[in-house]
Every structure is written in C-alpha cells, then in structure tokens.
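Continuing the batch. This is chain 6 of the set; chains 1 through 5 are on the previous pages. Same settings as before, nothing changed between runs. Recording input and output for traceability.
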Amino acid sequence: MTRKAVALISGGLDSLLAARLIQQQGIQVEGINFYTGFCVEGHTHAIRKKDKDKVKRNNALWSAEQLGIKLHIIDIVEEYKDVVINPKHGYGANLNPCLDCKIFMVQKAHEWIQANDFDFIITGEVVGQRPMSQRKQTMPIVSAESGADDLLLRPLCAQNLPATKPEKEGWIKRDLLKGFSGRSRKPQMALAKEFGFEDYAQPAGGCCFLTDASYSVKLQDLWDNRGHKKYEIDDIMLLKVGRHIRPDQSYKLIIAREEGENRFLSGYKGQFQTIKTVSHAGPMALVEGDKLDQQQIELACAITARFSKGRDEESVELVYSDKGDESQAIHIKPLLPQDLPQEWYIA
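Output for chain 6:
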C-alpha cells in the first residue's frame, strides 16, 4: 500500500526540500498552498520599476513543478482574518501572528487529509529557525493545537524531535530524515545542491508582508483611523503600493511613486476619490476615507503636486474626482518640503 502525504508548500526552499525527502522514500506527495492575501511579492515585482529584473512567478507553483507534484491552492482569505486580528499567541516583531498562522494552516491541512484519505502532513519547519513559531517549545504547540498531533512530520529536523506516527509505523525511515537546527541555511543549501535544485526562492526570508515593519505600521494606522481591526483584500494590496500620507485622521492619500503604480491605482477609479496631475508628468493619488471638503481637496492636490515634475512651479493643474461623475480642475502651488510634516508620512 502506497502511503500518501500532503506537504505545505510555501514556495520557499525548506518546504521544497522537505517534500523531496519524503518523495525519495516512496511516499505519494501532493502539495497544498493556502492563499491568505499577504504573500503576493510577485505582484510588487510586476509593478515596481526597481523590481523589474526580479523573477515574477508564483513560487509555490514553481516548487510543485520542480517536485512533479499536484498543488492544491486553497483560498483562506476570509477565515484567516481572525488569525490576523485576534491571534491567541500574539504578534511577532511586527503584525505577524506566526505561531497562530502555523497552527491554523496545519489545522486546515489536517482537515484536508481527513477529507481526502491522505495519511500525514509534511512541513519545512526547522527547530530554532524562526523566533516565534519554530522554537523547541512551540513546535509541540503547533502539533497539539492544530489537532494533527503525531501526523505532523518535519523532515528537515525530525531527528531532533520525538518520532511521529509515520516513523513509528515504518511508513518512512527516520534515519533518512534530517536533524537540522538553528538559523543557518547552509545545510539546506547543501541539500538543495545535492538534489539538483539550483534556482529557488531566496532562503533567508518569507513572502508574508505582515513580517515587514513598514507594512505593519500602515496596517496599524488603517485600523487605528477606521476605529476597528478589519480589512478587505483591496486593503491588503493597496497597503504595499505608493506613498501613504495622512494629513488628517479622516483621510489619507496613496500617491503613486512611478508609472507602474499609476496604472495599478487607476484600476480603483470609482471606488476612491482620485487626484491626477494634468499639466506636468506626475502621480495619481487615491483618497482613502471621508469625502473631502474644498479646503482638504486643495491641500491634497498641493501634496500630490509636490511629487510631480512641476514641484518647483508656481502652479500645477490637477483634476480631483469624487467616487461618482463629478470632477474639478485645481490650479495650485505645490506644497514645499518644509510644509509637509514628516509625521504625515505613514512608515
């Protein structure tokens, strides 16, 4: 009887190696990737000029291709909100609920293997690699609170942990698993070379934007000024695009930094109030928040004009549009740097 395992495939090196180790023992492996909305680095690479040379791909799909396995991509955006907003085990250095995230994903994988008649779960975790979710003390918490218990196998560090059911039942050989530990990635990179994996996602970090300090500050600002800890998928995407400037608690500006961001923000016309530079090359801006009064419109336009090619001119023409069909031309002197307080900038 061929045993079947599902591997949590993040797109990183560790999950790639963990799945290959189990494949080599004759186990049928399929992959599972949970879409939270926060791991979308390929999108940023596509719209930012400075990232134009970076590979634009879904690394989870790419990993599955290298392994020759089927990948199940499961949308958990709505369910995941409670993990982000109310993490039982708290946040890491930023707004990253890493331990709750791992527990949740292993729980979902456990539900999946029960529904699909698979035998156990594989992750790429390594003892001591992540300060919050991959410590010796927290690994048993993941196994227990997810409900997976000893059906959760970590092939890269298994020899440092108690034997799991796949090992005890003889489905796999424990001595063919690894005993990696700590933050050094040299063992993984050596194993990748041994397996013939030459092109893989950078091993040093994950793709989750919640681990990024600047992104987390902008998310916290969004929560603070809306008065509640909620978000939608559009919020997730917009928080990583443009300059975010808040002149007033009631609204903020998202100002494009380059042409790719201009095009992306243009897709939100009708959903937001917008400001577009007309007389000079310059950015588009979205207004997130309350409808602006005339004084606020003029200030927002002066700020936007500051980032245009007309920044040193006496007057720049912009067009302000509300969410409907109404718009007005604004001729205004760009705000001077000293009149744009640093505290208005969000992260």
